[in-house]
Amino acid sequence: MSTKDILNEALNIDDKSELITKDETIPVVPRPKENLEDMDADYKYQRENFYNLIERGSDAIEGILDLARESEHPRSYEVAGQLIKQVAEVTEKLGDLQTKMKKLKEVPKDAPQNVTNALFVGSTKELQKILKGKLQEIDDVDNKGKW
C-alpha cells in the first residue's frame, strides 16, 4: 500500500477526486515589440503600467480601509497609511514621466541648427595620436588603390 493510499484512507478521501482550478485572467499591458525602440511606445507602455498600479493600489486601499474600520486594529491603519503613501509616490512618478516626456519632445528655438566649429578637448598628445591615426587610415586607403 502506497503512502498516498494510506493518507487517502486515513482522511476518508476518494482517489477519484479531481483538481479544481480557478481560471481568472488578469489584464496585462501588452509589451511593445522588441524591434520598436520608439520613445513614444516606451512612454505609452510605462504610462499604462503606472495607471494599472494606481488603479490596483486604489482598490487595495479601499479594501484595507474597510478591514481597518472593522477590526479597529492600529496595525491595519498603519498598513493603510503605507499603502496610501505608495500610491501617492506612483502618482508622482506618473507626473514626472509627463514632464520628462515634454522636455524630451521640446526643441529649443534658439538651438543651433548647424555646428561649423568643432572644439577638441584634450591634451596635445591625444590630438597627435588621433591625427596620426587618421593619416594612417588615409595612407592605407591610398595604398590599397595603387595595387
Features:
single chain, Helix Hairpins, 4 helices, 0% strand
Give a written overview of the molecule.
- The chain has a single domain, classed as Helix Hairpins (Orthogonal Bundle).
- The chain has four helices and no strands.
- It has helices at 3-10, 39-71, 74-105, 124-146.
- Helix 2 runs antiparallel to helix 3.
Return the domain count: 1
CATH architecture: Orthogonal Bundle
CATH class: Mainly Alpha
* Low confidence ranges: none
Proportion of residues in extended strands: under 5%
Write down the overall geometry. Answer: elongated
Tell me the CATH superfamily. ESAT-6-like
Task: Summarize the amount of helix as a percent range.
Answer: 55-70%
Termini separation comes to 88 Å
The mean pLDDT is 79
CATH fold category name? Helix Hairpins
Please provide a brief summary of the model.
The protein has four helices and no strands.
Topology:
Layout: H1 3-10, H2 39-71, H3 74-105, H4 124-146
Helix pairs in contact: 2-3
